[in-house]
Amino acid sequence: MIPHNESSSTEISEFLLNCFVRSPSWQLWLSLPLSLLFLLAMGANATLLITIRLEASLHEPMYYLLSLLSLLDIVLCLTVIPKVLLVFWFDLRPISFSACFLQMFIMNNFLPMESCTFLVMAYDRYVAICHPLRYPSIITDQFVLKASVFIVARNTLLTAPIPILSARLHYCGNNIIENCICANLSVSKLSCDNVTLNKIYQLIVAWTLLGSDLVLIFLSYSFILRAVMKLKAKGAAAKALSTCGSHFILILFFSTILLVFIFTHMAKKKVAHDVPVLLNVLHHVIPAALNPIVYGVRTKEIKQGILRLLRKEK
């Protein structure tokens, strides 16, 4: 490792994650809930994946999409949280050049993938409620396969340049990242080069992907709400809304915590430096822990599937 105060003519080979060093007490009280959330996210998503895999009654497009969401959550958690806990517990702050940019690639790629998966699930609910008779012919296994390919291709093609642009920069001075993770802007600002292109590209891609997904999701739910209001049969509206209630709760939480992080980051001069850093870490574990629990609690078929598996084990 090259110390950050040496000559700027020497390229650095690794970074240091400066994770809450200004607030060491944060590391102590955050490590326990963070580790519990991590274990909960891993356990709940693994249980959901196993249940959907083994229960024939759950081999339907909606549950395949939920499996995809669980896989994305697991990868995001494994990419971020173990390293943060190693920093908290053992002060293992160094991260290699290649590991840092791999982490950056996965975070920038999988977060929009999750947003895009929510969009496809919103479309699934829209078809189920607004065009119920056509649902079996529109939302098929083939549709899920095509949607999955689209999710991976769209986000990989558009987000891959972010870590590539950052990795091509020259890092020849300070090697201390003021963050718990290798966020693009936190890393690229350490470069000796001009990083304007990095900032502009990330801004455009983030608002294009996440912004368009959120607009289309809420547009889908406005159509759903309008269709539900027209239902005249007793209890039909409540039943229709309950079928997409858990999905809507997760979307609201995902978008809310994301918007809070964005606006906090924009107003960083008015808030403590550690606040956006904390929100960035939590955004990779709290939705991952909540997604399978909300679906497990609110979806009767999943609850029954888990109970059947438990009975078989006994």
Automatic annotation (TrEMBL):
<feature type="transmembrane region" description="Helical">
    <location>
        <begin position="62"/>
        <end position="89"/>
    </location>
</feature>
<dbReference type="Pfam" id="PF13853">
    <property type="entry name" value="7tm_4"/>
</dbReference>
<keyword id="KW-0297">G-protein coupled receptor</keyword>
<keyword id="KW-0716">Sensory transduction</keyword>
<feature type="transmembrane region" description="Helical">
    <location>
        <begin position="245"/>
        <end position="263"/>
    </location>
</feature>
<dbReference type="GO" id="GO:0004984">
    <property type="term" value="F:olfactory receptor activity"/>
</dbReference>
<feature type="transmembrane region" description="Helical">
    <location>
        <begin position="26"/>
        <end position="50"/>
    </location>
</feature>
<dbReference type="InterPro" id="IPR000276">
    <property type="entry name" value="GPCR_Rhodpsn"/>
</dbReference>
<feature type="domain" description="G-protein coupled receptors family 1 profile">
    <location>
        <begin position="44"/>
        <end position="295"/>
    </location>
</feature>
<protein>
    <recommendedName>
        <fullName>G-protein coupled receptors family 1 profile domain-containing protein</fullName>
    </recommendedName>
</protein>
<dbReference type="GO" id="GO:0071396">
    <property type="term" value="P:cellular response to lipid"/>
</dbReference>
<dbReference type="InterPro" id="IPR050402">
    <property type="entry name" value="OR51/52/56-like"/>
</dbReference>
<keyword id="KW-0675">Receptor</keyword>
<keyword id="KW-0552">Olfaction</keyword>
<feature type="transmembrane region" description="Helical">
    <location>
        <begin position="204"/>
        <end position="225"/>
    </location>
</feature>
<keyword id="KW-1133">Transmembrane helix</keyword>
<dbReference type="GO" id="GO:0005886">
    <property type="term" value="C:plasma membrane"/>
</dbReference>
<keyword id="KW-0807">Transducer</keyword>
<dbReference type="InterPro" id="IPR017452">
    <property type="entry name" value="GPCR_Rhodpsn_7TM"/>
</dbReference>
<dbReference type="GO" id="GO:0004930">
    <property type="term" value="F:G protein-coupled receptor activity"/>
</dbReference>
<keyword id="KW-0472">Membrane</keyword>
<dbReference type="InterPro" id="IPR000725">
    <property type="entry name" value="Olfact_rcpt"/>
</dbReference>
<keyword id="KW-0812">Transmembrane</keyword>
